[in-house]
Write a structure and sequence with these properties.
mainly alpha
Length: 231
């Protein structure tokens, strides 16, 4: 067996050996540490202290993130170099998610924050949350769910289309029923937000019908939503 095949099996099949199992758990540990750092650095008290690049808190978070990214980068390059089918690896969704999960670190490392780049940097920081999807590769049950969703794309697309149609239709109905009588509903788009919250049975209560016809429409939407979710 070729060395590259052994490395590929080691990196992707935790059951191939005890060492592969340890590597898989190590990968999970780094993912959890990375996501934890991402969450911790948004806490108000930590955010203020970490704003100073010379502070102890910043150095700790930056060091942990650097170690995690180093591990993820080594893992991604190793899998890419030993992949039996290089084309399949480069075009797979998980490979791109792994790449996008580490990309923000290197971009942020060489980019200075300014008024022109602040919005872009915010998006890049948000992209770090993609690291949590690396857990999918380590769980057969999560992979099964992803496989089922992929096979059910046409059915899910139809479901989303029907749902969007209902949101637009009932949002429009509610707008014309409440127009001029409800200060919380000033447009069809705002009424569509009410339809989304109601059809998902969340019901935030920030927007609700106040007229008689609006309440009738709301009752119909709630009833149809229960049937829709049951299907």
């Amino acid at each position: 067996e070729k060395f590259s095949n052994k490395v590929w099996k080691f990196l992707n099949n935790p059951k191939s050996s005890k060492a592969a199992t340890v590597w898989a758990w190590l990968d999970i540990a780094f993912i959890m540490v990375s996501v934890t750092c991402l969450i911790v650095e948004t806490l108000p008290e930590i955010k203020v202290m970490a704003a100073d690049n010379s502070s102890r808190e910043y150095k700790i978070l930056f060091t942990l993130d650097t170690i995690c990214v180093g591990f993820f980068t080594f893992d991604l390059i190793s899998r890419g170099a030993t992949a039996p089918d290089r084309k399949a690896f480069l075009t797979s969704l998980m490979s791109w998610l792994d790449f996008l999960a580490i990309l923000p670190y290197f971009v942020l490392l060489f980019t200075k924050e300014s008024n022109n780049t602040i919005e872009i940097l915010r998006v890049l920081r948000l992209a770090r949350v993609l690291r949590v999807f690396k857990l999918v590769r380590r769980s057969k049950k999560l992979l099964l769910i992803a496989h089922v969703m992929k096979k059910s794309t046409s059915e899910l697309s139809l479901l989303v289309m029907v749902w969007l149609m209902a949101v637009v239709v009932f949002g429009s109905f509610l707008y014309y029923a409440e127009n001029g009588h409800n200060k919380n509903i000033t447009s069809i788009l705002g009424a569509c937000w009410w339809a989304v919250a109601t059809m998902s049975t969340v019901g935030y209560g920030d927007v609700y019908p106040q007229t008689t016809w609006g309440k009738v429409i709301g009752t119909v939407v709630v009833f149809l939503s229960m049937i829709f979710l049951a299907l």
